[in-house]
Amino acid sequence: MFALRAKESFTGVKTMKQMIKFNDFLEFIAEHENFDETLSEYSGMTKEQIKAILLTHGKNQNNPDIEVIIDERKDDEQGMFLPTGYTVYIDGASRGNPGPSGAGAIIYDGKDEVKKLTKYLGEGTNNEAEYEALIMALKEAVDLKFFSVRFFSDSELLVKQINGDYRVLDSKLEKLYTRAYKEIHKLSSFQIIFLGRRKNKVADALANKAIDDYFSKK
Questions:
Q1: Are 129 and 202 within one domain?
Q2: H or E segment at 48?
Q3: End-to-end CA distance of the chain
Q4: Quick one: 97 and 79 in the same domain?
Q5: CA distance 70 to 147
Q6: H or E element: which one contains 131?
Q7: E strands present in 34-143
Q8: Residue among 92, 108, 87 at smallest CA distance from 207
Q9: Could you give phi then psi for residue 203, rounded to 5 degrees?
Q10: Is residue 210 helix, strand or coil?
């Protein structure tokens, strides 16, 4: 009915993530009609989280096989219902590298736009701006209580450093990396994926808009 995936948590503690389908979950409820049995079968959940699944499913009637995650966090014995579908596109821009820089991000709930973010950063490099964009978007996702989020960036360096494929050797980037992971720790499910610049035009435009807006006010 569902697959189990073991993954190292940020604290080094083993966690188990259950990937299930809405149809399977709803079928179990329909058969048992008993919250206690449902809670036992899908450990780590609460009645409120089950209700949230049902409400979310109502928004996705055309895609009944959408996945949800039950994250059984062994470090604090706290499970959490995590609907997938929240995505964030981020980008940073620097004119001069180093030079005036800005950060941009756009947040989606499925195909629906939730919020656009821009921030002028002052003098900095492009890599620093990419990290600032990630941090800005992470903080917003936490504020919105989107605890299961997939990020997209056209910075291969950023993605590979966050994913642990590259070491962070620059002292300034190391500080930004630490700040980013402080925010990532607040999420229960985090993923960052590299994509080409052509697919990240909105976030790129927002990062440059932050710079343009700053100088237009001077």
A1: yes
A2: helix 47-58
A3: 60
A4: no
A5: 12
A6: helix 126-143
A7: 67-73, 78-83, 86-94, 99-109, 112-124
A8: 92
A9: -65, -40
A10: helix
Question: What residues make up the domain containing 117?
Answer: 86-216
Cβ atoms of residues 200 and 151 within 8 Å: no
pLDDT in tens, 102-142: 999 999 988 899 999 999 999 999 999 999 999 999 999 99
Residues 6+ apart with CB under 8 A from 154: 91, 194, 195, 196, 197, 199, 200, 204
At 116, phi and psi to the nearest 5? -110, 140
pLDDT in tens, 44-103: 666 666 666 665 554 444 454 445 544 444 444 333 444 457 899 999 999 999 999 999
Q: Which of 83, 112, 142 delimits the end of a domain? A: 83
Report the domain count for the chain. 2
DSSP state of 198: G
Determine phi and psi for 204, rounding to 5 degrees. Answer: -60, -45
Residue found by looking up tokens 């360096």 in the block? 157
Q: How far apart are CA 95 and CA 105, in angstroms?
A: 18
DSSP β-ladder status, 99-109 and 112-124? antiparallel
Integer Rg of the chain from CA: 19
Q: What is the pTM of this model?
A: 0.66
